[in-house]
Amino acid sequence: MSKPLITFGGMKTMWMVVMFDLPVDTKVAVKEANDFRKRIKQDGFMMMQYSVYTRHCPSKENADVHERRVKKILPPDGEVRILRITDKQFGKMKIFHGRRRKATENAPAQLQMF
Description:
The chain is α+β, with helices and mostly antiparallel strands and about 110 residues long. It has a domain at about 25-90. Helix content is about 30%, strand content about 25%. The longest helix has 16 residues, at about 25-40. The termini are far apart.
């Protein structure tokens, strides 16, 4: 039997995922991308990966509020996507790590001749 979703007063909790691909080819574009990132962080989104931010919302109505806020601050160029997933779906996320990078070898203290 599956666990019920976490609810508050009968409302399902959910996660909002904001993914974006914004141009950074000019100084103005860099500023717009940085401003967008800064403003979604001010609205409670946390960086999950570069250009992927998440925010927990206690209800659909709360998620609607945050979606409207993101739409208000969209930069003029680029692409922004918003995905809503349930708390249960978010909890089933699988995270895989690649190999750990090895530290670069230190150069020898002195050149050795044979």
